[in-house]
Amino acid sequence: MKVLSSFAIAAAFAASSVAALDAKFYGINYDVRTSQWGGCKDFHTIAEDFNILKEVTNNVRIYGTDFECAKNVIEAAHNSGLKVWLGLWSEVGTTVATDSFPSQNNALKELVNRTKLINNDDILGIQVSSEALYRYYVLGPGSDRRGIDTVVGYLRTVQSYLRDHDLTFPVVISDNMDMYTKFPELYDEVDVVAVNQFSFRESKTAEEGAHFTFKRFQEQETRAKRAGKLILLHETGWSTAGESPKVREASPRAQGVFTQDFLTLAARQNLNAFYYVAFDLPFNPTEIERNFGIYNADREMKPEVEAVHVGAPLQAVRLWAGDNVIKAHRYWNADDDSVNENFGSVYAAKPSVGPLGVLDDEIWLWDAASSILYSKSSNQCLDSYGDLNTQTLHTYDCSKVNHNQKWSVANGNIASQNDANFCIDVDVKCSKTPDGNLVVAMYRCNGHQNQLISMVPAADEPLEIGIKTNGGVLTEWFGKVTWETSRKDNADCHQWFYDPVTQLIASKSHRGMCLDAYERKNYGVVHLYSCSATNVNQKWVVNDITGQIHHATHIGFCLDGPDNANGLVHLWSCYKTEANQKWSIKPVKA
């Protein structure tokens, strides 16, 4: 293994700009090439790059696998504390496109057989193609099944090989969102849905970019949930220079705006994305493609990116109006494949219980510093507009300077801070919306019971996590985690707290202890461990369509109960039809 001397590393730091952001990127796309046509940076250069990148991310993604080059990348990443998402560059072969999958796959096998670098700790995952379907069906001549059949065949080949070698990290097909929509079988085939989205190329302004990305992402996320899968955004970003018919603005200013908005979106949605790209690539053929880097070619972070500030995580809350909760309509329907015609509207209903697909509708993020309530399901903020006599409540594009979005939470009321002096009001006796939900209105603050709204942090909201149909419930008993049908005298043993911001599942009966899974394998141990929002073994994602509880870090593994009651829960490969993985989350107050 090649190891840089301490002097060389110090010199690299002295020669390069090391800048850190207050919120890291989940991952960064990293190009190993030395020219438009290929090549590979040497180990020393890669190590210098990674010593810069480790300040802004924990993960890097590459596009191809040559034995020596990939070996250098993985070794340098390990030395810098980074994990690697590998890639196999492939094409659907045509007269103008040569497929390199066979040689790339052989290089992967060589890495597995000759080194210990391909392991479940250092490798995050691998894609068998990157936009190969797009190049074949959109840019190329494809109109048949050959393209999709080819890349799915590659996927199965690599999945089978890696599993035979006890390598459990996810194998995916990475492509743009339209290809997943065109070929819905992809959702079932891949271990995790991996999509690209460049709002930059869809005639959007930088100010529109992040929210448009959210809307497209929610569409794909909903389909991924139906397939029982998690989803990653493999590429998104904004160039700082160049012109193209569908590009509204490529500039440092625009990149700064989009990066600010996107990192804010990612933090609020727990959206895991690989940002495109680490460094400017001077050898690329167009000005746009040369200037996507968050760093320039001299490893200096671009000033508009360095100025990005996301701030502290917001607090997930529910807004209770009696035994109902206030909700915001999402953009993409959970129960069919269409845009929600009620997007932007606010309503009240009983809390979501079971696999309804609308859990996020009732989750708000409270920004105490700016007195704003952010809707997780709509990526908009609670907003009351009108005049001094009439106010209307809805969700609207977030703005910290919009007084219609400022709220005062006191004395059991939630009052708008604009000049109208109106409070949120839910009257269970009034007429309902066409879909049977309660109307959430704004009336002058009067202390009436209709205006008693309690803001309850999700981290303090007791839940029961049920399983099976015979009353089974997730249970903590003397430090062990089981599912049981018989109830303990201490009801707290059956109650948990789930915070969708930290993604922690905390025990009520054993305070300060959270569900923790440290083994990425079937029958992986699930136990209680001291809660920490930075502990990646404690991150869980609730699939509110299938009922699965995915491990957010050990992608492809879910919380799984034994066949019979009283046995210990564990990790197991995710299967949406597996009864032992169908959980139902229910607030105790529901």
From TrEMBL:
Pfam families: Ricin_B_lectin. Residues 1-20 form the signal peptide. Keywords: Carbohydrate metabolism, Cell membrane, Cell wall biogenesis/degradation, Glycoprotein, Hydrolase, Membrane, Polysaccharide degradation, Signal. It catalyses: Hydrolysis of (1->3)-beta-D-glucosidic linkages in (1->3)-beta-D-glucans. It comes from Aphanomyces astaci. Its EC number is 3.2.1.39. It comes from the Eukaryota. InterPro entries: Beta-glucan_modifiers (IPR050732), GH (IPR017853), Ricin_B-like_lectins (IPR035992), Ricin_B_lectin (IPR000772). Its main location: membrane. GO terms for biological process: cell wall organization; polysaccharide catabolic process. Coiled coil: none annotated. Glucanases play a role in cell expansion during growth, in cell-cell fusion during mating, and in spore release during sporulation. This enzyme may be involved in beta-glucan degradation. Active on laminarin and lichenan. The lineage of its organism: Eukaryota, Sar, Stramenopiles, Oomycota, Saprolegniomycetes. This is glucan endo-1,3-beta-D-glucosidase.
